[in-house]
Design brief:
With 77 residues, this protein is of the alpha+beta class. 17% of the residues lie in helices and 27% in strands. The protein has one domain. It contains two helices and three strands. A hairpin with a 4-residue loop joins strand 2 and strand 3. The longest helix has 8 residues. The relative contact order is 0.15. It comes from Pisolithus microcarpus 441.
Length: 77
């Protein structure tokens, strides 16, 4: 599970040293699968989940509101 705990640090331009110190213990780069929680802030604010299969280079997105509010317009190809 890749934590979004460090995203505010990234947003506010934390140094690489700080990011490495807070994330290196996870060793996420060694894992074949990453699970990424993603917050969708507007219009209603909810969380979606992206699973990344590193080996096959596939992304799988789960959005419980997908039928009510399609996300395709948010993706740039």
């Amino acid at each position: 599970l890749f934590s979004t705990h460090n995203l505010p640090r990234i947003w506010y331009n934390a140094t690489d040293d700080i990011l490495w110190r807070t994330m290196s213990w996870t060793k996420y780069w060694d894992k074949p699968t990453w699970i990424l929680p993603i917050h969708q802030p507007s219009p209603c604010g909810h969380w979606v989940m992206c699973t990344v299969d590193i080996v096959s280079h596939h992304f799988f997105l789960f959005d419980s509101f997908a039928e009510e509010r399609p996300w395709r317009q948010e993706i740039q190809v």
